[in-house]
Amino acid sequence: MLKVAVQDEEKAGAALMAWWQGDGAARVLAYDGAALLLERAESGTALADMARNGRDEEASQIICAVISKLHTPRPERPPPVVDLSRWFQGLEASATAHGGIFAMARATARELLAAPRDVRVLHGDMHHDNVLDFGRRGWLAIDPKGLVGERGFDYANIFCNPDAETAVGQERFPHRVDVVAAAAGLERRRLLKWILAWAGLSASWHIEDGSMPDTSLIVAQMALAEL
User: Fold this and answer.
1) What is the predicted pLDDT for the residue at 4?
2) 125 annotated active-site
3) Residues paired with residue 31 on neighbouring β-strands, in sequence order
4) Which among 56, 125, 143, 154 is annotated as catalytic?
5) Structural contact between residues 160 and 126, judged by C-beta atoms closer than 8 angstroms
6) Is residue 21 one of the residues assigned to a domain?
């Protein structure tokens, strides 16, 4: 599959894909600036379908295993990446304008970013459609954003996906938290804080784009209730 990046974050992601060298991510066959030639996933199995059809726990564990591979320290120097704190600047305007859950998410993000743990190069957009089945090569990631920050951040987006019905199930959410915390080796409370911070940021981006922030806001509220 040929992908030609047109945005800076996509170009950073292309460099990161090459840096991973096929370990946890799709293998890069050729790379030249904005152009990336990737091995193609041809399996019909999709994590989103698994999550919707009674296999959400398995889907979550697969994503966690892929994230763990991507976070493995490597001897090669990584390409230029963006500090996670820069992304969360997008939450400031919504917190000031709307208060409420946005202000809670901002306060939580500030707390986490002020004292990060286990800093790693991050994928930045880990969700069900960015982890594909490559057959004998297993489940591998695509389309990273290229960030650096606390590794717990990369697990938060699982909880806003793969769709609204799956993400906001009142009984499913706390079980998902337990599953991901165990699979990722994260403190449950720390994970909940990242979910709250990320969901608040996601909701603020939806508002900026003129789309509905409902799912992200509900996930943020559920994370806050669990805290």
Assistant:
1) 87
2) yes
3) 36
4) 125
5) no
6) no
Radius of gyration of the chain from Cα atoms?
Answer: 17
Q: What is the CATH number of the domain that holds 217?
A: 3.90.1200.10
CA-based end-to-end distance of the chain: 43
Let me know if residue 209 belongs to a domain: yes
Interval 3-50: pLDDT, tens: 887 888 888 899 999 999 999 999 999 988 788 899 999 888 999 999
For residue 128, the enclosing domain spans 42-226
Q: List, for residues 45-100, the tens digit of each pLDDT value.
A: 999 999 999 999 999 999 999 999 999 999 999 999 999 999 999 899 999 999 99
User: Is 107 domain-assigned?
Assistant: yes
Tell me how far CA of residue 144 lies from CA of 62, 116, 222, 225, in angstroms.
17, 21, 27, 30
Report the b/e string of 52-67 with b at 16+ CB within 10 A: beeebbebbbbbbebb
Q: Catalogue the E-assigned strands of the chain.
A: 2-4, 28-32, 35-38, 82-83, 119-122, 131-133, 139-141, 147-150
Question: 135 - beta bridge partners?
Answer: none
Q: Which phi and psi (to 5°) does residue 108 adopt?
A: -65, -45
Please give the backbone phi and psi of residue 2, each rounded to the nearest 5 degrees, phi first. -100, 125
Tally of structural domains, the chain? 1
Q: Which amino acid is at 201?
A: L
With respect to residue 33, please indicate whether it lies within any of the assigned structural domains.
no
